[in-house]
């Protein structure tokens, strides 16, 4: 697991031996899994556990703001 961003109390990680599609796991009080490219081209929430709606919205905004950097990091890690 590689922490790629820390922001607003969240830790955004990419697992080294994870699977496609490109996605991140966001840890705060709970956890969320977010695909970096959803069907509409924007990040897509896959699931969230133990997070309030406001935390999910904030984590989605952070992923959207940093999507290009996160995709680049995913490619570095997974080839």
TrEMBL record:
Pfam families: DUF4160 (PF13711). It comes from the Bacteria. This is DUF4160 domain-containing protein.
């Amino acid at each position: 697991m590689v922490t790629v961003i820390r922001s607003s109390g969240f830790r955004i990680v990419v697992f080294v031996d994870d699977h496609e599609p490109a996605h991140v796991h966001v840890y705060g009080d709970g956890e969320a899994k977010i695909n970096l490219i959803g069907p509409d081209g924007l990040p897509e929430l896959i699931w969230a556990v133990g997070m309030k709606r406001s935390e999910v919205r904030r984590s989605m905004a952070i992923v959207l703001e940093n999507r290009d950097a996160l995709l680049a990091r995913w490619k570095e890690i997974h080839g």
